[in-house]
Target: von Willebrand factor A domain-containing protein 2
Amino acid sequence: PTVLLVLGIQEIHADQEMIGKISAAGQLMQCSASLDVLFLLDGSYSIGRGSFERSKLFAGKLCDALDIHPDRVRVGMIQFSSTPHLEFPLDSYLTKQEVKERIKRIVFRGGSTETGRALKYILRKGFPGGRNSSVPEVLIMISDGKSQGSTAMPAMQVKERHITVFAVGIKFPRWEELHVLASEPTEQHVLFAGDANDAANGLYSTLTGSVCSATTPGCKVESHPCERRTLETVKELAGNYVCWKGSKQPNAVRASLCPFYRWKRILIKHPSRCFRTVCPDPCDSQPCQNGGTCIPEGLDKYHCLCPVGYGGDIHCAPKLSPECSVDLLFLMDSSAGVTLEGFLRYKAFLKRFLQAVMGQDSPMNVGVAQYDNDVRIPIEVGQHKDAFSLMKTIDALNFSGGGTLTGRALQYIAQHGFRSTPVFAEVQDDRPRVVVLLTDSKSQDPVAEAAKYARDRDLFLIGVGSSFVRAELTKVTGNPKQTIVYSDPQDLFNRIPELQRRICTVDDPEGCQAQSLDLAFAVDASAGVGLENFLRLRDFVRSSFLHFSINRDVTQIALVVYGSKAHTVFALDTHTSNSALLQAIDQVPFMGDSASTGSALLHVYGDVMTVQKGARPGVNKAVVVLTNGGGVEDAAAPAQQLRDNGILVFVVVIGDAQRETLLRVAGSPSYLVHISSYEDLQHYQDLIIERICEEAKSPVNLCKPNPCMNQGICILGPGSYRCECHGWEGPHCESS
Model:
């Protein structure tokens, strides 16, 4: 209850957004001027040790709003109770850090609240260590305003000396006394320490009008109605009750009615106005598109949290590249098997997807077909050129129910789905034709033959469905990579980026087929990963091989497994075909001891990525580390050594792990992929391969890593290199 009371001591009547802006500005404002500031800290028993510590904390926060420097703002502090005590003069500490550290060391003194005596001390001594009124003087009193004795006369005399007085309430302040202490206009000079950011803003807003330099462009001081409250104890008549009184007669008492009182704590309200600086929020212009959430960072920066399917730029533009020119037909299951709820979910998915991909001048032609026992094409491919009219038509689609004849639907679409593109036109349209099958129920007719018929007519088939129909979707697409499976209804919407990628890469060669690359996988085979998860990692590596064309001229792959020590399963030049690699990976040993990723990376550097072991000068090099995050503490330095020698380090971590440590290993967030579980590993394969392939296109330094053996020195020439050998011979200093 006390905490709630403290929060209710001062209330600015403004909406939550405005309160947020006031607080944000309070954290960022800095008063920069020649100014002497003296804090007068109430250290009496009525404040108590706890509130005194909060006063110190508050004073430290206010220092953040002051540009403390010998030539600009100087700060001193006096603690007062029965007598004033100089904690430090204004010329003692001349940097913000020094002042804040000294404030932390101040000790609570205790005693009565002699505010008047503290003010007389200032009248007598001035600002200790100050610049003798040659610069403006500001006195900031932090007190509960419960003084013993009158404060009106010394307060008036202090203000007559042209000292600006701020009265800051702490705990449950007596606001009437603080108003007497503060400079005029009092509403601009009375603050509450319970909200440091608000008080810093109030202090800055008042000083801006007199001594501080002008506010940030666009910022302005605004007046808001506010209310302050005082917690007072009052005597209240509880009623008249029977009591017994003595009598003049000996040995006699008489009954009477006596008033009974009780003490009650009440909040007394003090309406006022609060003057605060507000700045234009960088999010006011609503820069985030497509439902993105704008998060301000200071007064002029922001970032957008983008929904799934967006993030093509900082403002949540669609992620899909505008160069993705395809004819796209969604074939949507409308049978009883998917139910009305499933059908409505597919419609919502379609709309979300189209919002993400169709800009104003989208080169993509989209159509929608639905099927059960029969097939209908309510939206022909290319019928609508803008997303809005397309989505209105999708809204009008009705659920039909009926049987699930997927095979028949595929056959029909192969013959009639893309009629708008003439087959015998003089100029043949070479845009890829993509069919996305959306289904959640097994077909009641055979699908394999119909799907092959469609694929033979150059239709690219992509299947989207629940794990229940995974096997059937793979029969339809003919390739597990073209099958997108979701685990629950919400997960369907998370698959939008993956579907975008599939549609836009149907006509591209897989992986880095056209790029030369020396690639090493370093797989954690420690007890921390465990045998079952290790086999999952092995399967992930095996399926990754399918993305690359393995031969001496294009991609070479090495595999290292590690526990406390690293073991090369095969070197870069061991296998020269995909089939040989796939056979060899079955022989991978599980180590089962502790993990040392650093040892593995040192092994890759010294024993894998070398000319002796098949590494090719002038070819991009990358290491993919697959780990659960255990044993990576020793890996940062070896990883940096690899990067210094032109070898990319890509870290894939599964499960909970220290992100900071892993970032040091990866060197950049772009090369760190964090996956929550081993089951999700397969969903990230395309992303990882894409990143590696992007890197394979970057320019290569022929001397990194050093191709010269036996301490030979690599010397770069125009488009070539040579080795300078010492006591050795051969192009790479390989023979003695």
